Amino acid sequence: MAGRGPAKAVTHTRKRNDTKLIQLVSDGKTRGKPLPSNVLFDAEGNSQKWHAMTVKWWNNWRKSPQAVRMITGPDWDYLLDTARLHHEFWSTGNMGLEAGLRLRLQKFGATPADRTSLGVEVAATMPDRVGESEEAPTVGNVTSIDDRRTRLALEG
């Protein structure tokens, strides 16, 4: 008789559900080094400055929660190579660079979808509020997930 064999055990889950996301939280530190000078040259060999968008982009990465995981020199070297592509993309407007740039950024978890595929999530942190009670913060009519978990634990 053709088929897929016996039914899976009730405790079985799909692989995509077996993994837990690693939660990254920014600690407020700036990691890595500033973009190096004297690495960009025009056709005549004159030194160029980094494009302003690339400087902003680089500094965002240095302060990002993802930077907490970038602990080796090669991590930053790879991002620096990516910064060169980013600079060329913004300086020349060459849309042909976009695909390569996008693939490289995917490895660092640039978008929420990228982070999900890497098994990483960025934790949202609320700024400390001086003088307020320690109740769960609310935004509109939504309470914090910790408050919800506490209530569910008490009900169950």
User: Within the largest sheet, what's the order of strands?
Assistant: 1-2
Main sheet: strands, sense, barrel: 2 strands, parallel
Q: Low-confidence segments, ≥5 residues, pLDDT <50? A: 130-134
Mean pLDDT: 81
Supply the helix-strand structural class: mainly alpha
Share in helix? 40-55%
- SSE arrangement, N to C: HEHHHHEEEH
Number of strands: 4
Q: Compute the separation of the termini in Å.
A: 45 Å
Any overview of this molecule?
The protein has 156 residues and is mainly α. It has one domain. Helices cover 40% and strands 6% of the residues. The protein is built from 6 helices and 4 strands, in the order H-E-H-H-H-H-E-E-E-H. It has helices at 15-18, 52-63, 73-92, 98-106, 112-118, 145-155; strands at 22-24, 120-122, 138-139, 142-143. The strands form 2 sheets. The chain has a two-stranded parallel sheet. A hairpin with a 2-residue loop joins strand 3 (138-139) and strand 4 (142-143). The protein starts with 14 loop residues before the first helix and ends with a helix.
Provide keyphrases for this structure.
two-stranded parallel ribbon; two-stranded antiparallel ribbon
